[in-house]
Amino acid sequence: MERMQMSSAIWPCWLSAWARPTKRWHLQPECHRRIFCCWISCCRNEQGGCGRSMNLTETSKVYIMCPAYAYSGGPTLLHQLGARLLADGVDAAMYYWPLTAEKKVHPGYKKYNLPYTDAIDDCPDNVLIIPETLCGFVPQSLKIQRVLWWLSVDNWWKLTNEFLQYYEEQAKAFDTEPLPNVWALNDAGLTHWVQSEYAQRFLRLNGVPAEKILPVGDYLDEAFLLRNETVTKENRQDVVAFNPRKGLDFTRKLMEYAPDISWRPVQDMTPEQVEEFLHTAKVYVDFGNHPGKDRIPREAVMAGCCLITGRRGAAANEVDIPIDEDLKFEDTEENIPRIVAKIRELLSNYEQEADRYAAYRQKIMQEPAVFCQQVRAAMGVGASREETELILSHECGGGTEVFLQDYLQQESAAKQIVMRPSNAPRSLAEWQTFVHRHHITQITVNHLFGFSLFETMASIRKLGIPYTFYVHDYLCICPNWSLDCQAAYCQNYRSQPYCQGMLKALSVPNLDLDLFRRNFREFLAGAAEVIAPSAYAAQVVNQFYPEVKITSRPHKLQRNIEQTFQPQFAHTPELTLTFLGNLCAQKGARYLFQLNSWLKRRGLPVKLVVMGEDIQDIDGDREGILFTGKYDCENVSGLLVQQQTAAVLIPSAFPETYCYTASEAILSGYPVITMNWGAQALRVQRADCGWVVSRDTPDRGQLALQRLVRHLLTPAGRQDILQKAANTKNFRNGME
């Protein structure tokens, strides 16, 4: 996080005033209206004008006022705005309040790499953006262009109410009746941004002209949206979720009326736990105030919950919460039976009712793009430069390359450049020249193998450009990227023959593993996002770097795969087991060669097929195994059916982070045989679409594999194949 230092010391009286502790005001009742009007108009600038958008010049600076060291929806949006402006080439900086705060930048926002300043240049070319809850602390006479951003209405009212004690009515929605004599909202020196339709109606109701109001909304975390692009209806429980911090009094009445319903509060959970919980609930209710477009109701809808709300605040209109009218209720005693009846209806008919929210989900998915458009329109700027994403990736093929090619096929708002180790910059100066020449606005690290590792990571961190890191293997833990030792020797790797032999083979015999991991720890901690293709891989990495937040986002195959398994394949006299992928030691070649020798000694009617190339990195009994050679991933389903495959062998000798071949086999309808580690083992277990062989034996599971194959040749085993093949339908493309 870079801190900006401005040359001019501006607003000394403001700075000194902010340094003093504030007192609660005690005024006579007749003074409240006057104080209120002054407070609301504190940003009045008699010299300034207001247009539909800001007037920016080449030297303009934009300052975003934000509560210091606060982590909630409002500060998140303010930081997202800063990142958006910088991406569009606007000179923007955060201005944290109060200035005396010892801690300013919350760790949750360091990923944005936003500059901040303690001084404002009060110039007509510059812009100050003020959240509504801080508008009372801005000086009255300023030359700078000012924006009052209404992230909420009700939260602003809570602060205002301290000055308006005479106004004792408890309004349910501030967009239905005007406040008394709030003429100061129509301030000639202010532009108003609104996060919600609710805020817009509130301002219009209180005399702010429409031409002075601009919509600038918000959006849910884009990683969250990607994870929840498709609704998962399976494994739902008859649970009604609610936020106990909102509308709890009325929710308690619902709970007392229907004690047989399972009511679960969303509390004492991390964001990840909230998301996981919402994936299991069927209904989410919110009868609290809605000061704007609230985050959790939208997250609940995206996670697949059916939403029921009250009609307070933003929930009252059809724009901010666009759900059917029969899903919104006044929170009154007489409505309790109707509300509970609707909840029971949603629980009973969840499969159909969940589809009613499809349009709302689509709107939420579009919010990041809409936010970008609204910010550009409000600031009066276009995309000043073409956004370009730089993608770093090795040249070794495999699943990492499959992911890269699928990634490049997806729609992207940015131009994309793929950088390989052979053409990478060799110094920080070369990196800076490259990113400037190509207008790089984001960096994606697909894989760093082959790059000058430490130098590349250090340069990327110093560029100040947001970067995303993908965990495709375990290189971020050890140069032995497969981690096939299960990190058994990490505490004393210097004295372990295994480690010394491995490091020598990798041409790094004198590697300081502690230094290696310190570099990666800092690099991962500085990433905007770290993404693993499975919870299994994320858990392994977190064992070494527990402080790094890792998002689990399973790969989704960008091609159509048909279910081609046929029941007769389980009943052929000679059973066909197909190894899918290139055969090498790490993919389980030893298991296959030993199984082949055992089958021939026993004379068992099993045909072994390798649908891929023989890498020949180890010796073994290859006689009798059919090698079909390199295959086209687009035709994997057809090739499996050609071989009359009964089951697919994936006996990996290391804990894979994802395993594309397992997904290809399962989506094609074929049961999978794998060992009990890696992401593919969890996939097979969860869908019950194959067999997981324990390798926790002296022979690493070889005897257990032989017993399983012998079982599959029996009538019961062949029926087992059919059942496991049928269970492959439990797995869908993009699932964990």
Q: How large a portion of the residues is in β-strands, by DSSP E?
A: 5-15%
Please tell me the overall pLDDT.
Answer: 85
Approximately how much helix is present in the residues? 25-40%
Secondary structure category: alpha/beta
**How many H/I helical runs?**
24
The biggest beta sheet is recorded as: 6 strands, parallel
Span between N and C termini?
A: 34 Å
The 3D shape can be described as globular
**Regions with pLDDT < 50 over 5+ consecutive residues?**
1-51, 166-172, 180-184
How would you write the strand order of the largest sheet?
A: 2-1-3-4-5-6
Number of strands: 22
* Number of separate domains: 4
* Spatial extent as radius of gyration: 30 Å
Would you mind describing this structure in some detail?
One of its GO terms (molecular function) is transferase activity. Keywords: Transferase. This is Glycosyltransferase family 4 protein. The protein is α/β, with parallel strands linked by helices and 736 residues long. It has four domains: 12-215, no CATH class; 222-363, Rossmann fold (3-Layer(aba) Sandwich), CATH 3.40.50; 388-552, Rossmann fold (3-Layer(aba) Sandwich); 567-730, 3-Layer(aba) Sandwich (Rossmann fold), CATH 3.40.50.2000. The protein is built from 24 helices and 22 strands. A six-stranded parallel sheet has the order 2-1-3-4-5-6, with helices on both faces. The chain has a six-stranded parallel sheet with strand order 12-11-13-14-15-16. α14 (428-437) crosses α15 and α15 packs parallel to α17 (513-525).
Strand and helix layout:
Blueprint: H1 12-19, H2 32-40, E1 61-67, H3 73-87, E2 91-97, E3 127-131, E4 145-150, H4 154-160, E5 190-194, H5 197-205, E6 213-215, H6 222-227, E7 239-242, H7 248-257, E8 262-265, H8 271-278, E9 283-286, H9 295-302, E10 306-309, H10 336-348, H11 350-353, H12 358-379, E11 388-392, H13 398-409, E12 415-419, H14 428-437, E13 440-445, H15 453-463, E14 467-470, H16 497-505, H17 513-525, E15 529-532, H18 535-544, E16 550-552, E17 575-580, H19 589-602, E18 606-611, E19 626-627, H20 636-642, E20 647-650, H21 660-667, E21 672-675, H22 679-687, E22 690-693, H23 702-712, H24 715-727
Parallel strand pairs: 1-2, 1-3, 3-4, 4-5, 5-6, 7-8, 7-9, 9-10, 11-12, 11-13, 13-14, 14-15, 15-16, 17-18, 17-20, 18-19, 20-21, 21-22
Helix pairs in contact: 14-15, 15-17
